[in-house]
Design goal:
Layout lengths: L2 H12 L2 E9 L2 E9 L2 H22 L7 H8 L5 E2 L2 H16 L9 H13 L5 H9 L6 E4 L4 E4 L12 H15 L5 E5 L2 E4 L9 E4 L6 E4 L2 E7 L4 E4 L2 E4 L14 E7 L2 H14 L1 H8 L6 E6 L2 E4 L9
Antiparallel strand pairs: 1-2, 2-6, 3-5, 4-5, 6-7, 7-10, 8-9, 10-13, 11-12, 13-14, 14-15
C-alpha cells in the first residue's frame, strides 16, 4: 500500500464515530455497537438491523402461536410443506448439528421445552407419563427436510419446534449482514450470551472480549462467540439443580455444572455448538469441537477449565 493510500485510509477511519443502541427481541435485549460517519447513518443502520431481528423473531418464535415456526408443525404432519428461506436455513442447520452430535442438539424438543417451562414455574419435576408423551412427540429423525423442494414434514402430530438454541446467533449474523449492506463495516451485535462481530473498530486489532473463566482477553473480528450454561436459568428440586438446557434424550434439564464458550465464524454455528457441547459433556464435547473447522471452545465444569487445541490461538 502506498503512503498516500495509507494516509487516506487513516483519515477515513478517523471520521468514524461509535454509536450504540439496544432493543428487546427474542425474549432478551439485543445490543448493537457500530462505527458510522454520522448520527443519521447510525440511526438508519440501527433501524434496518433491528427490523431484521424483529422479522426473524416473528418467524422463529415458539412463544408466538402465529409464528411460522409454530404453525408449520400443524400443517406439515405427513405432508411436505413449503417454508420460508429463513426457517429452512435454521432448521437445516439444526438438523445438521443433530446428525453430527447424535441428537445432543435437537430443534424438535418443543414439547419438552413447554413441559419444562411448566415444571420450572411449579418448581417440580414433570410427571413421568407426561414426560414420556412429550418425548414421543420429539426427535429430530421425525422431521424431514427437502432442500430441493424447500419443504418440511413431520412424522407425528403434536410435534413442536424450539430453535432457541440457535436463533439468536442466526439473528446476530443477519443483523451484521444488513449493517454491511448499508456500508457499516465495524459492528458488534450482542444478544445475551451470543455475540457476532464484523471488522475490528477503527485503529484496533479486534473487539476485546473477556471470558469469566479466563484471565486473558480475546480479540475477535469477523467471528462470533457464544456462551451457554445454567448459571442464569435453573431451579432446584430435592437438592438437585436443573438447567433450562435440556437433554433431548431424557427430556430433563442438565444437572452438571457446565458452561461452554464457543468461537466460530458465524453466530448460528457458535450458538448451536455451545448448547450441544453442554449436552455432550466435556470429553465428547471437546472431541466434537476438534472436528469443526474454524471453531474453538473452552469448557468450564465446576473448577475444571478445558480448552480445545485451537482456542489458545485465539487468546491474546
Amino acid at each position: 500500500m502506498s503512503s498516500s493510500a495509507a494516509l487516506a485510509l487513516l483519515l477515513s477511519a478517523a471520521t468514524l464515530q461509535p454509536y450504540e443502541a439496544v432493543e428487546p427481541h427474542m425474549g432478551t435485549l439485543f445490543s448493537i455497537k457500530l462505527y458510522a460517519a454520522n448520527e443519521q447513518q447510525a440511526k438508519d443502520a440501527f433501524h434496518a438491523a433491528f427490523a431484521r431481528i424483529a422479522q426473524l423473531d416473528a418467524t422463529l418464535s415458539d412463544y408466538k402461536s402465529d409464528s411460522e415456526l409454530s404453525r408449520i408443525t400443524i400443517t406439515a404432519v405427513h405432508t411436505p410443506t413449503p417454508i420460508s428461506n429463513d426457517l429452512f436455513r435454521v432448521l437445516a442447520k439444526g438438523q445438521a448439528l443433530a446428525e453430527q452430535t447424535n441428537g445432543a442438539f435437537d430443534v424438535t424438543v418443543g414439547p419438552l421445552t413447554h413441559l419444562w417451562r411448566q415444571s420450572r414455574r411449579a418448581r417440580s419435576l414433570p410427571d413421568p407419563g407426561v414426560l414420556a408423551d412429550a418425548l414421543a412427540r420429539s426427535g429430530f429423525k421425525k422431521m424431514h427436510l427437502d432442500a430441493a423442494a424447500h419443504t418440511v414434514a413431520f412424522d407425528v402430530p403434536g410435534m413442536q419446534l424450539d430453535v432457541g438454541g440457535i436463533a439468536k446467533g442466526f439473528a446476530a449474523d443477519e443483523a451484521l449482514a444488513v449493517l454491511s449492506q448499508l456500508g457499516i463495516k465495524s459492528a458488534l451485535v450482542a444478544a445475551s450470551g451470543d455475540l457476532a462481530f464484523s471488522d475490528a473498530p477503527p485503529g484496533e486489532k479486534g473487539w476485546k472480549i473477556a471470558i469469566d473463566a479466563l484471565d486473558r482477553a480475546l480479540l475477535l473480528s469477523n467471528a462470533s462467540i457464544s456462551t451457554s450454561g445454567a448459571a442464569e436459568q435453573n431451579f432446584t428440586v430435592n437438592g438437585i439443580r436443573y438447567s433450562h438446557i435440556l437433554n433431548p434424550k431424557t427430556g430433563l434439564g442438565l444437572t452438571s455444572d457446565i458452561t461452554t464458550t464457543v468461537i466460530a465464524r458465524h453466530g448460528i454455528d457458535a450458538d448451536g455448538m455451545a448448547t450441544a457441547i453442554n449436552v455432550l459433556g466435556p470429553d465428547l464435547g471437546l472431541a466434537f469441537i476438534e472436528k469443526q473447522p474454524g471453531a474453538a471452545a473452552v469448557i468450564v465444569n465446576g473448577s475444571i477449565v478445558q480448552e480445545s487445541t485451537s482456542f489458545s490461538e485465539l487468546v491474546r
